[in-house]
From TrEMBL:
<dbReference type="InterPro" id="IPR054780">
    <property type="entry name" value="Cytochro_C550_firm"/>
</dbReference>
<dbReference type="InterPro" id="IPR036909">
    <property type="entry name" value="Cyt_c-like_dom_sf"/>
</dbReference>
<protein>
    <submittedName>
        <fullName>Cytochrome C</fullName>
    </submittedName>
</protein>
<feature type="compositionally biased region" description="Acidic residues">
    <location>
        <begin position="34"/>
        <end position="54"/>
    </location>
</feature>
<dbReference type="GO" id="GO:0005506">
    <property type="term" value="F:iron ion binding"/>
</dbReference>
<keyword id="KW-0349">Heme</keyword>
<keyword id="KW-0249">Electron transport</keyword>
<feature type="binding site" description="axial binding residue">
    <location>
        <position position="75"/>
    </location>
    <ligand>
        <name>heme c</name>
    </ligand>
</feature>
<dbReference type="InterPro" id="IPR012218">
    <property type="entry name" value="Cyt_c_BACSU-c550-type"/>
</dbReference>
<dbReference type="InterPro" id="IPR051811">
    <property type="entry name" value="Cytochrome_c550/c551-like"/>
</dbReference>
<feature type="binding site" description="covalent">
    <location>
        <position position="74"/>
    </location>
    <ligand>
        <name>heme c</name>
    </ligand>
</feature>
<dbReference type="Pfam" id="PF13442">
    <property type="entry name" value="Cytochrome_CBB3"/>
</dbReference>
<feature type="domain" description="Cytochrome c">
    <location>
        <begin position="48"/>
        <end position="129"/>
    </location>
</feature>
<feature type="binding site" description="covalent">
    <location>
        <position position="71"/>
    </location>
    <ligand>
        <name>heme c</name>
    </ligand>
</feature>
<keyword id="KW-0408">Iron</keyword>
<feature type="transmembrane region" description="Helical">
    <location>
        <begin position="6"/>
        <end position="28"/>
    </location>
</feature>
<feature type="binding site" description="axial binding residue">
    <location>
        <position position="108"/>
    </location>
    <ligand>
        <name>heme c</name>
    </ligand>
</feature>
């Protein structure tokens, strides 16, 4: 028998496209839940208190941990520069650093640090030597 060798590939492609379509529909029904989970993760997730699930106080904020998660990809492992500029030995005031952290500058996006932790993060960035 001469069978067409293209048929199995077409069936696999149709199955894959159908699977992608139905998986994308799953996310549409859960937009609010996915957004809430993502916000919680970005704000520290596990640092929330157990009583009410409220956000952690700024006393629990670890600037170095946040920097390891969000800053090293651009500023380098030792914060001496990479894609982004060096953070070591900045000649900016604390208010200028807070402004850059909040609003961004150049290719750096704003809002990477929660507003209530801007002071602690700015102090930490300025302490890098």
């Amino acid at each position: 028998m001469n069978r067409n060798p293209v048929v199995p590939y077409i069936l696999i492609m149709a199955l894959g496209i159908g699977l992608i379509f139905f998986m994308s529909l799953y996310g549409l029904d859960n937009q609010e839940e996915i957004a809430a989970d993502q916000e919680q993760t970005e704000e520290g997730g596990e640092a929330a208190t157990e009583e009410g699930g409220d956000e952690a106080s700024s006393g629990d904020f670890d600037p170095e941990a946040l920097a390891q998660g969000k800053c090293v990809s651009c500023h380098g492992q030792n914060y001496e520069g990479g894609v982004g500029p060096s953070l070591v030995g900045l000649d900016l005031s604390q208010d200028e650093v807070k402004d850059v952290l909040k609003n961004g500058k150049g290719a750096m996006p704003g809002g990477l640090v929660p507003d209530e932790n801007l002071d602690a993060m700015a102090e930490w960035v300025l302490s890098l030597q």
